Every structure is written in structure tokens, then in C-alpha cells.
Amino acid sequence: xxxxxxxxxxLIPTRNxxxxxxxxxxxxxxxxxxxxxLWVYDDASEDPKAIENAVLAVWPTAHVIFGEKxxxxxxxxxxxxxxxxxxxxIMLEDDVYFLNVGTIEEHIRHHASHPERAVIQFKCKSKGxxxxxxSDAIGACELPSFLAGASLFHLPTILKVGGYRxxxxxxxxxxDLAMRLWEQGCQIWYDPGIFVEHNQWYSPNERRDFREYDxxxxxxxxxxxxxxxxxxxxxxxxxxxxxxRAFHHKRNYRIKLKGLLEGIALTFSHWDNRTPLSARKAxxxxxxxxxxxxxxxx
Length: 298
Known about the structure:
nine-stranded mixed β-sheet; globular
């Protein structure tokens, strides 16, 4: 019989999606996780009471944190990590649940044997399409980045490097954090035996705001480079990334231009928060990321 998971809390940010969230919590209980502490951050939902009711109806012992101002996934996860009081956080999206809990408890109990492992990345598949984040051919290995909503975090390590940058809100907040972890000698470790499903669906009032989405991705693709590289290298790389991404989805070009310009402005307004690698380390990280990207090819 598998050992019960200890010293960990389930951490879920959400916004305006009580039906999706309730379905996820039901699935987690079916996997026998109802004894774990659950912390939910409501990111300034239009009807926070609906979120609270959805959570407590399924998980009466849960803690719900209500954000008065929109923070996005980056700020919400920071708040959850600081509030939960456990050493490890099982980080999930409000539409991600386990198919196989696998060896999470083993990673927790044996963390002292691998203290460099800051993040354990789970295998994830889309319920709608069957697509997976990594091929079945990929075994346990180190990765250059992670899926924020399908991971186990060693919280003291994550918080030691500053957690997420709140002003990213969402979009590229994971590779930004991953880059800072890599610089400190920390690892993102992939365990394909821990398997989750992404049940991405929307009711009519839960649709994504694509104008906001395109703004943040255009902005943060630039910030990812300028906040983590020498400016002479990061600024041109960031501009190229932002422009190239602008043509990935043919829409909202003015919004994307605004995002690029906001990214340049934020680079200077957050100048003291930059963590630029040396040119040598930046090149080393680029090689690591490029090699690691091979894992993600179908």
C-alpha cells in the first residue's frame, strides 16, 4: 500500500471558474487526497462567494484566500506558497487533476538525497485532444522549464530565489522562474510516473480574454530576456521573440505592439529586480534550453 502524502499542501489559483474548479476538486478526492490541506486563491473573481461555495461544498476543510485586486497566476501562487505552511506544494491549475499520483510521497521523503530538485514536473495530457506535454519515450530527466499547474514544488527553494515575479501576472512566468533556479544550481526534474489530466473547457461566462492574453505574452516574452540577461543581449533577443510570437496567432497586432513597448518600459521600472546572467551563463542556459526542447517534440 502506498504511503500517504505528508508535509505537502495542494495549491490552486482560480478566477471566475467555480464549475471547473468544483469538478477538479471532486476528481482529487476520488484519488484519495481529501486529507491533504487544500489552499485556493481566488484572484478577484466577479462572484467570490460562488468560488467559496464551490470549494467548501467539496472540501470543507479548505482554506480560501480572497484577492481584492487581480494578481494573475504569478502573484496568486506566491501568496499560496507563503500562506500554506508546508515544505512542499502540489501546484495545480483549477482544471488539472491526477490520473496517477505515482511517487509524489517518495520525492518528498527523499528530498534530502536530491536537494537540488526544486521542482518535480508531472506528465500531463489534454483530456480534449489526448496531447501530452512530453512523449511517452521520455523517461525521468532534467528539464529546462515546467508546467506551473502540474508540478511539485520544494517551497523553501522556490521562495529563496524570489518565487514568481508578480508583475508578470501570467505568461512566461514559469521559464522566468526556471532560469533563476538554474542559475542557482537547482533542477526541474521530470517524473513520468506522476500523471495528470488537463480538463480545459469553458462555460459561456468563463472564456479567455484574448486581448489580455496577447498583451501579456507579447510583453513577457521580452521581459523574460531583459530581466535575465545582460541588457545588450537580452533587449534584442526579447524584441525578436516578441515580434515573432506576434505572428503566431494572427490577431490583436496593436495590442501586441503595446505589450512589447510595455515590456521595454517595465524592464527599466523594475531595473533593481533584474537577475542578469553573465554572457557565458546566458549562452550556457540557451544551450541547455535548446537541448531540453528536443524532449517536447512529438
